[in-house]
Design goal:
Mean pLDDT of chain A: 85
Shape of chain B: globular
Structural class of chain B: alpha/beta
Strand content of chain B: 15-25%
Radius of gyration of chain B: 16 Å
Radius of gyration of chain A: 34 Å
Number of helices of chain B: 5
Shape of chain A: flat
Strand content of chain A: under 5%
CATH class of chain B: Alpha Beta
Distance between the termini of chain B: 18 Å
CATH architecture of chain B: 3-Layer(aba) Sandwich
Number of strands of chain A: 0
Low-confidence stretches of chain A: none
Distance between the termini of chain A: 64 Å
Structural class of chain A: mainly alpha
CATH superfamily of chain B: Response regulator
Order of helices and strands of chain B: EHEHEHEHEH
Oligomer: heterodimer
Helix content of chain B: 40-55%
Largest interface: A-B, 25 and 21 residues
Strand order of the largest sheet of chain B: 2-1-3-4-5
Helix content of chain A: over 70%
C-alpha cells in the first residue's frame, strides 16, 4: 500500500472519505446525545446504538489521524535517511579521493559499529569506483568488521539476512568473499544461487588473474559447472565478468565435458560480447551433433561479424541442414564470407520452405556487395518460386535498392 | 589570435539517477579544478538544465527510470545545432557491444564503464573537452574569415 507512486494521493482520498464519514457519524452521535437529553435516546436499545455510532466515529477519526501521522513521519524519515546517506557519502568520497595509501584508510571515524546509512553509502560507492579509491573504501569495511559480518551472515543468517549479505558482498567485491559465495551455488534455494553467482562474477571481475584450475577463474568455472542455474542467470553472470569474461569464456569452451546447455550459453555470451578473437573457438561448435549448439555457434559468428576460413565448409553444409533454425543462423552468418564462396548456396536458399531461411538468405545476399544485390534483383524478377520472388522484393525494398513504385513494377514483370 | 580556454573552465553537466554517482563525479571534477559543474538526478530536468547551463560536456547515465539516457540524448540532439560538437560521455555498467553501438548512434562520443577509475574518467573528459574547444575555435575562425571577405 505504501512506498509506491501516488501514495500521497491515496492518503488524501482516504482521509477525505474517512473525514466525511467521521463528520457524518459525529453529527449523528451529537444528535443522539442531544436527543437523549430531550428524551429521544431513552431506551436501552437506543443507548446501545448511540455507543456503537460514537465508537465507530472515534475509530475512524483515530485511523484518519494515524494515516496522516504515518505519511508525515514516513516522509520525514525518508528525508532524514537521504540526508544521512548524503553525509556518509560525502565522508567516504573525501576519504576515497584523498591521495593517501590505501592502508591509511583504516584511520576512519572510530565507531564501534557503522550505522546502516554508512554501510549503504560505502557499498553504493564501491559499485561505482575501483582502483586505489575502491581499495580505500574496502579498507573501511575491513576496519569496521562489515566484511566479517557479511561473511558470517552468508553461512548462518536466515534467508533475508543471507540475501542482504550476498547483495552487500556483491557490491563490495571483496576477494575473500569469492569462495564463500561460490559455495552458495549448491544452496537448495534458487534465489540464493542466483544472487550468489552474480555477486561472485562481480567479485571475480575485480580480482587479479591467476591461470590454472586452482586460480579464482578456475574455481568459478568449476562451481558454475556443478550448479543448477537457469541459462539466463549464467549468461548474466558471465556478462558481469566485464574484462575477465574473455578469459573465462575461453576456458569454459576448452572444457571437454562441458554440459551442452552451458556450452550454448557460452556461445551466446561470446557473441553478445563481440569477442571476435574467439571466432575460431566458436567455429568449432558449428559441427556439433546438437542442432541447438550448431545454431548457437552460427548466431555467435554472425554477431562477431567474422567467419574463420576453417568454418567455411561447415557453414556451406549447414545451409542444407535438415533443421530449419540451423539453416536460418547459417544463412545470417554467411554474410561474412566472400561473395564468390557463398553466393550460389545462398541463392538456392531463396527458395527454402522456411520463411525465416528465405529472409536470412535474401538479407545476407543484399549485404554481399554488388554481386549479391544483383542476385537478389534477378531472383525478384525471375525466380520460379513466388515466395522467393516476394522475399527478394521485400529485402530490396527494405535496403532501399527499390522504391515502392519500382517494387510494384518488378512484381508486375514477374 | 584567440586562446583556447583551459579545460577546467568548461561547463560540465552530470545526469545520473543515483545520487551517490552524482556526488562522486562532482567531487572528482571539483578536486581536479573544474568549478563549473551542474548536476541532476532527475532525467526529466536534463533538457531544461542543458538550455540554461549550455554545457561543454555532458556525463550521462544510460539506465535511468522513466527517461533513459537514449531519450535524454534525443532531447539534447534536438537542442544542439547540427555543426556543434557536443561531447556526451556515457556512464554505464552495461558492456554489451549492441548497447554501445546504439549509444554511439544516438550521439554519444565516449564511454566510462562502472565501476570506473578516477584517472580514466578525468582523461576522457579532458580529451573530449580539448576537441570541443578546438571545434569552437575553428568555428570562430570560419566566422571571422567570412566577415573578412
Amino acid at each position: 500500500m505504501w512506498r509506491r507512486y501516488g501514495d500521497a494521493a491515496y492518503t488524501l482520498v482516504t482521509l477525505a472519505i474517512f473525514g466525511f464519514e467521521t463528520l457524518a457519524l459525529g453529527w449523528l452521535s451529537l444528535s443522539f446525545l442531544l436527543g437523549r437529553a430531550t428524551g429521544i435516546a431513552s431506551t436501552r436499545v437506543e443507548g446501545v446504538l448511540l455507543a456503537t455510532v460514537t465508537s465507530t466515529a472515534s475509530a475512524l477519526a483515530l485511523l484518519g489521524l494515524y494515516l496522516l501521522t504515518y505519511h508525515f513521519t514516513s516522509s520525514l524519515r525518508d528525508r532524514w535517511h537521504v540526508e544521512r546517506l548524503d553525509q556518509w557519502t560525502e565522508r567516504w568520497i573525501a576519504l576515497a579521493l584523498e591521495d593517501v595509501p590505501a592502508e591509511a584508510a583504516a584511520d576512519t571515524p572510530r565507531l564501534r559499529r557503522l550505522p546502516r546509512a554508512a554501510v549503504d553509502a560505502v557499498l553504493s560507492l564501491l559499485e561505482v569506483v575501483k582502483g586505489d579509491e575502491g581499495d580505500r573504501l574496502k579498507a573501511v569495511l575491513a576496519r569496521h568488521g562489515v566484511d566479517r559480518l557479511f561473511l558470517r551472515q552468508l553461512q548462518k543468517g536466515h534467508l533475508a539476512a543471507r540475501l542482504d549479505a550476498i547483495e552487500g558482498l556483491g557490491k563490495a567485491r571483496l576477494p575473500q568473499a569469492l569462495d564463500p559465495l561460490l559455495s552458495l551455488l549448491q544452496h537448495p534455494k534458487p534465489v540464493v544461487r542466483r544472487m550468489a553467482v552474480r555477486a561472485a562474477a562481480g567479485t571475480l571481475a575485480t580480482m587479479a588473474p591467476e591461470p590454472g584450475r586452482d586460480g579464482p577463474g578456475g574455481r568459478f568455472i568449476q562451481a558454475l559447472q556443478g550448479a543448477s542455474l537457469q541459462p539466463g542467470v549464467v549468461q548474466e553472470s558471465l556478462l558481469l565478468l566485464e574484462t575477465r569474461a574473455g578469459v573465462v569464456l575461453r576456458d569454459l569452451m576448452a572444457e571437454p565435458d562441458l554440459d551442452d546447455s552451458l556450452r550454448r550459453v557460452v556461445l551466446e555470451t561470446t557473441g553478445r560480447l563481440g569477442l571476435a578473437d574467439m571466432a575460431e573457438e566458436v567455429a568449432a561448435s558449428t559441427v556439433h551433433p546438437d542442432p541447438e549448439l550448431r545454431a548457437a555457434a552460427f548466431r555467435a559468428l554472425h554477431r562477431l561479424g567474422s567467419v574463420p576460413e576453417g568454418a567455411q565448409a561447415s557453414l556451406l553444409a549447414a545451409l542444407d541442414d535438415e533443421v530449419d533454425f540451423v539453416r536460418v543462423q547459417a544463412a545470417h552468418a554467411a554474410a561474412f564470407l566472400s561473395a564468390g564462396a557463398v553466393l550460389p548456396a545462398l541463392e538456392s536458399r531463396l527458395g527454402d520452405a522456411s520463411w525465416w531461411v528465405r529472409r536470412a538468405a535474401a538479407a545476407s545476399l543484399a549485404r554481399l556487395g554488388d554481386d549479391g544485390v544483383a542476385t537478389v534483383r534477378r531472383a525478384a524478377e525471375t525466380h520460379p518460386d513466388r515466395a522467393a520472388r516476394d522475399m527478394a522484393v521485400q529485402v530490396l525494398l527494405e535496403t532501399g535498392v527499390l522504391d515502392p513504385a519500382a517494387a510494384r513494377l518488378v512484381k508486375g514483370v514477374a | 589570435m584567440t586562446q583556447t580556454p583551459r579545460t577546467t573552465d568548461a561547463r560540465i553537466l552530470v545526469v545520473d539517477d543515483e545520487r551517490v554517482n552524482v556526488i562522486l563525479l562532482e567531487r572528482i571534477l571539483q578536486q581536479d579544478g573544474y568549478s563549473k559543474v551542474r548536476s541532476t538526478s532527475d532525467a526529466y530536468k536534463a533538457a531544461a538544465l542543458y538550455d540554461e547551463f549550455e554545457p561543454d560536456l555532458v556525463l550521462l547515465d544510460l539506465h535511468m527510470p522513466g527517461l533513459d539516457g537514449f531519450a535524454v540524448m534525443e532531447q539534447l540532439e534536438s537542442r544542439t545545432p547540427r555543426d556543434t560538437f557536443l561531447p556526451i560521455i556515457i556512464l554505464t555498467a552495461d558492456i554489451r557491444p549492441e548497447v554501445k553501438r546504439r549509444a554511439l548512434a544516438a550521439g554519444a562520443k565516449d564511454f566510462v564503464t562502472k565501476p570506473f577509475d578516477r584517472t580514466e574518467v578525468l582523461l576522457r573528459i579532458q580529451n573530449l573537452l580539448e576537441t570541443r574547444f578546438l571545434h569552437l575555435r575553428l568555428d570562430r575562425q570560419v566566422v571571422r574569415q567570412g566577415q573578412g571577405t
